[in-house]
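[job 4471] stage=fold_predict status=RUNNING
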Amino acid sequence: MRGVCVFLLVCIMALSVAMPDRQDPFLWLSALHGRGYNEGSLLADTTGGECPDECDCPPSFPIAMYCDGRGLTAMPTVPSRMKYLYLQHNEITALPDSALANTTNLVWVMLHHNALSTDKIGKRAFAKLQGLERLYLQHNNLTGVPPNLPRSLRDLRLNNNNINKITPEALEGMDNLTILYLHDNALTEMGTSLRGLNSLTLLDIGGNKLKKVPDSLPEHIHQLYLESNAISVVPEGFLSKFSQLQYIRMGHNQLTDKGIPPNTFNVTGLVELDLSFNQLERIPPVSQTLEHLYLQANHIKEFTLGSFCSVVDVINFSKLRTVRLDGNEISTADVPSDSVLCLRMANTIEV
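[job 4471] inference complete, writing structure tokens
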């Protein structure tokens, strides 16, 4: 802070010395130059092409191009120096192979909330972007995953489209992918498309038309969102292989007691479990390490304390902080008196 103050004082002194008769409007630039600042650094960078008139390319961040919310219907010309490209909230309908062919250093491409369709995206549109890490294509008109996506991707968002199928080749080789959003599409099954996504930690495939839990789910996943599908059965040993899974949401499905094998959700490490808006009649057994449980809007008829604590005493108790059981067929009168011991950590118990 002291250095900044000294710098400003020097500039003010330079101005005051030179202003007896007439003020030079560019004298401040001379003061900066005299202290080793290059005035060229304050001008627009035109390396690799000039910034399109309809976009902004700040001199302070010359590798970023901001074209968001400009009413664009076609791709602008992108200078080759760009690494960060913001094109969201436009009406862009096509992405030809040539659109990004010269911008091979791109790291982020934001194309969400446009009007792109799969057949209007060139087969090689993304092929040369070997360093691309984030690609946002949500809220478009896609019916499939665009071809030849870079294997360098870490964050891929394809939610809120009309994707009805994902081929095994679409995501093949994406060893770095950690976040995949596919929710709110028209998927009926996933096949083996998720196989090999060894770094994936967050998968959201809610809001589709899935009738079963996908096969070949990545083993290192932390967050799995399957809500708002048509899943009625959970496979045997469903969660046994996911040692790092902490959050699972399966609300708004068609799960019944018969469709959940015993102790499916009684696994250590799980932090949040959402089974709300299903057709359950009993509380499924859960681990004592679980912290948040959502079972509202089912058909549960009994508050079974054994689902939370196999033994109820001073030492053994549940870590649950949130328990939602409202919208079922039980009332507060059905809650056992010794639940105060088992659920002593709970801040919220709604019945």
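[job 4471] summary: The CA atoms of residues 140 and 196 lie 27 Å apart.
[job 4471] exit 0
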